Amino acid sequence: MGPGAPAARVGVVGHARYEQLEATLGRVRDYAARCGVAFYFEADLLGPELMEGAEALRPEHLAELDLLLTLGGDGTLLRGARRVARHGTPVLGVNFGHLGFLTSAAPDELVSALDRALSGDIWLDERMTLEVRAEAPDGETRGEFLALNDVVLHKGGVARMIRLAVRANGEEVGNYSADGIILATPTGSTAYSLSAGGPIVSPSVDCIIATPICPHTLAVRPLVLPAEETVSVDVLTPSGELLMTIDGQEDAQLVPGDRVVVRRAPYPVRLVRFPGQTFFSTLRRKLGWGDLVERAR
């Protein structure tokens, strides 16, 4: 590292609606001055009430970051993680939200969490991601996306069932008449897929979970597919609005005849974890997993 170079480069993504954010950003400012760390803040955090005059996080910074710090809930972490996944940047989530299933620290732990993350006193929990491509009937690409949790195909407008044809590696799985379908990673197995009746899958098991939303027959149940298979969904519904949603945040409109192709992405998201923060300990603590005696501990 050359003379005058920062000790580390950290990107900061946050949700401005949280009351604790202003005080937390003050601690980040103090940390930067004390430790010589360069922080780059997304645009929503650069207003006069928060970090006026701070350096903005720009696309050219993403490949140079040593760490991405997310300040908010799981949604903020998902948004930030998609930005840096292609660069393998570790993501440290500080939870201001209600559940915080993916985050690793509370606001009052910010300084110690940064110290440990930047000194390497952590382990990295690698989470599989999905490449998602929407195609027109002529094969033209309508859009390409990256998902850490899931991609959801669902009806827009009125509540009405839709018809979808699902294939795995080109082989017909079956036609689904349902309110939609969720294609989830193991990380996303504890999100919308779980609410729709899908299985909880350990993140160490790489796979794609296909969970129908309110299927109109009992013969259609959630399906777990190998991570290396390519899953495609064709829109058979002859009319009406259909939406594709990525991690509950990005969306694109589909039309009859469109196809959505989903496969494992070559770059996982790397979540910062501290000793004792395992998937099953989080499951017990956040979702009340286990019997009543275990929950009372």
The strand count comes to 18
Stated plainly, the CATH topology of the largest domain is called Rossmann fold
Rg is 21 Å
CATH H-level homologous superfamily name of the largest domain: Probable inorganic polyphosphate/atp-NAD kinase, domain 1
Second CATH tier, the architecture of the largest domain: 3-Layer(aba) Sandwich
Give a structural overview.
The structure is a single chain. The chain folds into 2 domains: 9-127 and 268-296, Rossmann fold (3-Layer(aba) Sandwich), CATH 3.40.50; 130-264, Probable inorganic polyphosphate/atp-NAD kinase, domain 2 (Tumour Suppressor Smad4, Sandwich). 18% of the residues lie in helices and 35% in strands. The chain has 6 helices and 18 strands. The protein has helices at residues 21-35, 74-84, 110-119, 192-195, 279-287, 292-296, and strands at 9-14, 38-41, 67-72, 90-95, 123-127, 130-135, 141-147, 150-155, 162-168, 171-178, 180-184, 207-213, 223-226, 231-235, 242-246, 250-254, 259-264, 269-273. The strands form 3 sheets. It has a 6-stranded mixed β-sheet, with helices on both faces. The longest helix is centred in the N-terminal third of the chain and has 15 residues, at 21-35. The protein is elongated and about 60 Å long. The model has no long low-confidence stretch (mean pLDDT 91).
